[in-house]
Structures are given as structure tokens and as C-alpha cells.
Amino acid sequence: MRIISGQYKGRRITAPKKLPVRPTTDMAKEALFNILNNRYYFDDISILDLFAGTGNISYEFASRGTENITAVDKDYGCTKFITQTAEEFEFDIQVIKADVFKYLEKTKQKHNIIFADPPYDFDIDAFSKIPELVFENELLEEDGILIVEHSKHTDLSSLANYSYSKSYGGNRFSFFQNTSE
Description:
Number of domains: 1
Strand content: 25-35%
Structural class: alpha/beta
Distance between the termini: 37 Å
Oligomer: single chain
Radius of gyration: 15 Å
């Protein structure tokens, strides 16, 4: 995997093969950041990276100047790798080893962007729990969005607060926003 843009553009990051992850492809990541680049100033926002895995998305935000990043994953190997990589690149990423659902139930911190990349084999009930907890607990800033990455074969359009989806190869990003605004 590599960093697409920003201060560390082009830098390759090699994660240990034993991590239970499926990093977002460079093509999908580049397309996602093109969308976000038109909506946000990256040095001004707060990011929550759920099911962070290798930290791929967190590094991309950090390379583009985001300083308020929290990465959550329950796997010790993943959180250790993100911590080591963040130190190596001098990225200010707060790494939390926790079950994502329990974390969402307890945290009170609001973010501009919450990015979730859960296992593609989640059933619809597990997927639906993510936006449910984010919006029930009011974890997004006023202009905030929740982005859930999933397989193009999964349809999340029936979930509350769904806004739209974009597909890139086998990946799909579903965007959720507060609809009561």
C-alpha cells in the first residue's frame, strides 16, 4: 500500500502479512479522497477511522495535514502496527485497541468524518449498527459524514441516514449524513 497524496506522497507502507486485513485499494482510496477534497480542508477536521486495520486511511489523512485522527481496531497486531507506523512518520494518530461497537457506545467525541471499513462478510444487521450508533450518539459534527466501505455486492441504501454510494472496482463507499438538518 502507498500514500497517494500530501507530505508523504508515494511512500510505501508494508504491513505484516499476518494481519487480518483487506486494505482499501489505491484506486478506491484516490477516488474517495477526490470526493472529500472538494468538501473539506484536511488540516481543519477531525477523523475517526473504525476497523482501522493497517491504518491506511489514517495515514492518508495525516499525510494531507489532518492532525486530529483516532484509529480504532480490536486486533492487537493492527493497533501495534498503526502505532509504530505513526511514530515512524511522526503522524499524530491516537490509536485505540477496542471493539468498534463498544467504542461507539461509549465515546462522546464528535468528528467531521467517520470512516468505517468493517469486514466485507458482515451481515446487514452488523452493517446497520454502525450508522445507528453514530447517529444515536450524535458523533458527527454539523457538516459531518459517515463513510462505510463495503463490497459492491452489499446494498446499504435502506439504512437510516443513507445519502449515496460510489463504487470503484469491487469496493463501494456508502455515505451517511444527518438527515434532520
